[in-house]
Write a structure and sequence with these properties.
A hairpin with a 2-residue loop joins β5 and β6. Strands 1-2-9-4-7-10 form a six-stranded antiparallel sheet. A four-stranded antiparallel sheet has the order 3-8-5-6. The protein is an alpha+beta fold. It is built from twelve helices and ten strands. The longest helix has 19 residues.
């Protein structure tokens, strides 16, 4: 097994070799993406899918609710469910660009690993935060570098990439934060049921809902739903929905050129004035001024890097 610093240097070199220009780059590896950024930019807003994320060069902050997660090349960040976040690269330059890697996964993949590992979460265990930063241990670093090296041996990808992806998930599950990942695949756990509520709100954020409706979906009381939902996502269901609405509104304003009132109704607001107030509170400027600022900075959309 190679030295950790040597592995990080090799990973950064591989990512730089396979990225041309700033932005997010898909790869021949299933569910693996590379990121490159040469300048500091304003925060980006969007959804993190379930994914294992690395900073290979530079540094980055991710805000979930009021919590800030900072990670550097010696750490990894993991999101185990869909989560609305704010992210900002804090260390990047033309001479030393920010470089990142993202490996997306599904709860079924986690469950497949759990069936053959020592990790276990009892159904009655308290729900844990679905995002965490942890230290990159040598066995995990070694698995990641072996996965990325497959880009130089593409004929091996169909057979070896799924196996190494399972190994990466196994290393995370066996680590100190493993239970926070395992909980989403453990049928009967509080987090497992909260995941269903998260998925519902994510796909129907423009609709009004009653807390009792969500509680029935999770087979919980309203108070238990509220408590477990906040433990997993760092926010209430209403706050979660509001972030999704405002993020989608900003995307529509920037990409489709719609007016603020039309966007407000499109994402579920009944009052354009309420939409404008909440938009200003979240993004720091009213919709029209924020769009002008974003276009001036050419801020790219957040892509779970």
């Amino acid at each position: 097994m190679s030295d950790g610093a040597d592995l990080r240097t090799e990973l950064a070199a591989l990512v730089e070799c396979h990225t041309e220009g700033n932005g997010v780059h898909s790869t021949a590896l299933p569910s693996v993406f590379f990121m490159r950024q040469t300048t500091l930019a304003p925060p980006t807003y969007g959804m993190y899918n379930p994914s294992f994320c690395l900073v290979l060069q530079g540094a980055k902050n991710v805000w979930l609710g009021q919590e800030c997660f900072t990670y550097t090349p010696t750490d990894y960040l993991l999101a185990s469910v869909n989560l609305p976040v704010i992210a900002q690269v804090t260390d990047a330059s033309p001479d030393r660009p920010y470089l990142g890697l993202k490996l997306e996964f599904t709860p079924d993949q986690v469950l497949s690993v759990l069936r053959n590992s020592r990790s276990y979460v009892a159904p009655k265990d308290p729900a844990q935060r679905a995002m965490f930063v942890s230290h990159m241990e040598p066995p995990l670093s070694d698995a990641v570098i072996r996965l990325v090296r497959l880009l130089n041996h593409r004929e091996d990808i169909p057979v070896l990439a799924p196996l190494i992806t399972k190994e990466i998930l196994y290393r995370v599950l066996e680590g100190s934060c493993g239970p926070a990942l395992a909980q989403i695949a453990n049928v009967g756990s509080a987090a497992y049921h909260i995941k269903d509520v998260i998925d519902y709100i994510t796909h129907h954020f423009e609709r009004a809902f009653r807390m009792a409706q969500l509680a029935d979906m999770a087979n919980m009381s309203v108070s238990s739903l509220h408590r477990h939902f906040k433990e997993v996502t760092a926010m209430s269901p209403i706050q979660f929905q509001k972030q999704l609405r405002l993020q989608e509104a900003r995307r529509l304003l920037l990409s489709e050129g719609m007016g603020a009132a039309d966007v407000a109704f499109r994402v579920g607001y009944e009052s354009p004035s309420q939409f404008s107030r909440e938009y200003s509170r979240w993004f720091g400027l009213p919709p029209r001024h924020d769009v002008r600022r974003a276009k001036a900075h050419a801020t790219p959309p957040l892509t779970n890097e």
